[in-house]
Amino acid sequence: MIIKYKSFNPQTLFSLGLILAIQAPALLLAQTTEGDPAPEISISIEDGKVKLAINLNEPFRWENTRYESLKKFPQPWVGLPDIPHEIWFNEKGDMTWRQTDMMFMGNYTELDEYEVEAGVMGYVVEIIGVFNPETNLLNFDTLEYVPFFKVSKLVVEESKDLKNWSRVKLSEPLPKEYQWPQVLNIELETELKGDAFYRVKIVEE
């Protein structure tokens, strides 16, 4: 999606930028996979800095997702902060489950869109994990977990005329992951000067 921002009335022109994107669907970014929804972009200006909130619109998935428990547990070493349990659902049905300082290996099978069966070394019976699409929480072995997706390589570009585009640097490196399905917040290493259009590209690796 392309968003336009002008310098003289931020509130009015933010609305105009949204109208522009909605009325001209040809301006939407090409999708990384045919049929996937394009990213949605919200723009704001704080202290002269351009900030983008990007909804990547990624569908739910099990594979290549990390889960972090809401509850935190004490570590066996004195003085260290409590940490959550973590589950990694990797490729080809492999999984890793960390409980404080202990790592458990295993395999998982997708029973349906929101349910998995996990066989974990050291556990006699399989564990059924159920993801709730309303709360966006995974219930796994009596604990609730939140999902984290890896962040794709993103490129932000700026244009004055929608013809010539230049890459914009970010004030900080992209995070390696984000909590799904929340937005990804980034700040550009540029100050708003006059009219400008912004777009975000997802680069396939």
In short:
The protein is 7% helix and 51% strand. The chain has 205 residues and is mostly beta strands. The strands form three sheets. An eight-stranded antiparallel barrel has the order 4-5-6-7-8-9-10-11.
Keywords:
about 200 residues; mainly beta; Lipocalin; 2 domains; four-stranded antiparallel β-sheet; 1 helix; elongated
- Overall geometric form: elongated
Helix coverage percent:
under 10%
What amount of the residues lies in strands?
over 45%
N to C succession of SSEs: EHEEEEEEEEEEEEEEE
Widest sheet: strand ordering = 4-5-6-7-8-9-10-11
Mean pLDDT: 82
Number of helices: 1
Distance between the termini: 20 Å
Q: List the uncertain runs.
A: 4-33
Gyration radius over CA: 21 Å
Number of strands: 16
Secondary structure category: mainly beta
Structural features, described:
The protein is mostly beta strands. The chain has two domains: 2-56 and 152-203, no CATH class; 65-149, Lipocalin (Beta Barrel), CATH 2.40.128. 7% of the residues lie in helices and 51% in strands. It is built from one helix and 16 strands. It has one helix at residues 10-23; strands spanning 2-5, 40-46, 49-55, 65-73, 83-89, 94-99, 102-112, 115-120, 127-132, 137-140, 143-150, 153-159, 165-167, 177-179, 184-191, 196-203. The strands form three sheets. It has an eight-stranded antiparallel β-barrel. The protein has a four-stranded antiparallel sheet with strand order 1-16-12-13. A three-stranded antiparallel sheet has the order 2-3-15, with no helix packed on it. A hairpin with a 5-residue loop joins strand 12 (153-159) and strand 13. The longest helix is centred in the first third of the chain and has 14 residues, at 10-23. It starts with a strand and ends with a strand.
